[in-house]
Amino acid sequence: MGKKQKRGSKQSIVPHREAFMRMNFLFQASLAVLSANPSHPQLSRFYVHTMKNVGKRLVLRMDPGMKRMLCKGCDSLLVPGVTATHRVRAHRETHVVVKCLTCGNVKRFPTRPDYQLWSDNPANVAQPQTTGEPPPTPATSGQTTATLDHSRAQTPTHPSTSKSPPTTTVDKNSATDP
Ligand SMILES: [Zn+2]
């Protein structure tokens, strides 16, 4: 399921750092190319396509703000007024409709004041592990307690594993991906 990380390795080093740097460069390059020549977005789309391929190959997560700027249909950068239209709609619940002007693909984002992305919640973000203990995560469900008993049965002398089994965190992470 998940990737195994070495506990003893240095935690400050980001895994796949070069790939993240390349994705960042490709994103900025596509934005620069599009702003220099908005009437010909082909090169910008190629850069975004390459960036998504790099992320897919190594299963890297993009920042949600970055991901919301990309069209799923044609890999265009969704710049308001240039390659996309942004409209506020009040049907059912007030939301923003982003429409790609190249392929017509539509994205909808809620505008609730209390709306929070799953990754913006600090409880869901893993803290850097300096003491070797797992990060505290508020996981309270029936499945969690089942895993809890299992981990207790395996390692009875480790008290810090009772709060956060890493398998449930990975499952939550993949299930709530926008
Ligand atoms: Zn599109």
From TrEMBL:
<protein>
    <submittedName>
        <fullName>Ribonuclease P protein subunit p21</fullName>
    </submittedName>
</protein>
<keyword id="KW-0540">Nuclease</keyword>
<dbReference type="GO" id="GO:0005655">
    <property type="term" value="C:nucleolar ribonuclease P complex"/>
</dbReference>
<keyword id="KW-0378">Hydrolase</keyword>
<comment type="similarity">
    <text>Belongs to the eukaryotic/archaeal RNase P protein component 4 family.</text>
</comment>
<dbReference type="Pfam" id="PF04032">
    <property type="entry name" value="Rpr2"/>
</dbReference>
<dbReference type="InterPro" id="IPR007175">
    <property type="entry name" value="Rpr2/Snm1/Rpp21"/>
</dbReference>
<feature type="compositionally biased region" description="Low complexity">
    <location>
        <begin position="155"/>
        <end position="169"/>
    </location>
</feature>
<dbReference type="InterPro" id="IPR016432">
    <property type="entry name" value="RNP4"/>
</dbReference>
<dbReference type="GO" id="GO:0046872">
    <property type="term" value="F:metal ion binding"/>
</dbReference>
<keyword id="KW-0479">Metal-binding</keyword>
<feature type="region of interest" description="Disordered">
    <location>
        <begin position="112"/>
        <end position="178"/>
    </location>
</feature>
<keyword id="KW-0862">Zinc</keyword>
<dbReference type="GO" id="GO:0016787">
    <property type="term" value="F:hydrolase activity"/>
</dbReference>
<keyword id="KW-0963">Cytoplasm</keyword>
<keyword id="KW-0255">Endonuclease</keyword>
<keyword id="KW-0819">tRNA processing</keyword>
<dbReference type="GO" id="GO:0001682">
    <property type="term" value="P:tRNA 5'-leader removal"/>
</dbReference>
<dbReference type="GO" id="GO:0004519">
    <property type="term" value="F:endonuclease activity"/>
</dbReference>
